[in-house]
Amino acid sequence: MGLEIQIIGKGCYFCDQLRKIVDALVVELEIGDASVESVEDMGELLEYGVVNPPALIVNGQLKMMGRVLVRSRVRQAIVEELGADSSTESADREA
Questions:
Q1: Active site residue 15
Q2: Distance CA 75, CA 81 (A)
Q3: Which entry of 1, 2, 10, 12 is annotated as an active-site residue?
């Protein structure tokens, strides 16, 4: 199962920068089955409780929000979800 990554915001400079960071990390981490989407819908923003966009959502989990985007923290959030996916897949195979 691939990662579903959403960048939720208003299409501002910081949203664009987060998208560039995520796109680069998907290539760097060789995540071929990742789906990356930029979402500017205010309903989505409110659904996740985002008060300070942009926000990074990975597999439905709010990982971070706010304009201070540190590449290493974005990378860590994605890698954590990759680990969660593999442990779920391992458990499914063992059952």
A1: yes
A2: 10
A3: 12
Is the overall model pTM greater than 0.85, yes or no?
no
Give residues with Cβ within 8 angstroms of 35, minimum separation 6: 2, 3, 4, 5
Domain boundaries, the chain: 4-94
pLDDT tens for residues 61-88? 999 998 767 999 999 999 999 887 654 4
Instruction: Identify whether 23 is a catalytic site residue.
Output: no
Count CB-CB contacts under 10 A for residue 39: 19
CATH architecture of structural domain 4-94? 3-Layer(aba) Sandwich (3.40)
End-to-end CA distance of the chain: 17
Catalytic residue (choose from 15, 21, 50, 57): 15
Q: Is the dihedral of CA 84, 85, 89, 92 positive or negative?
A: positive
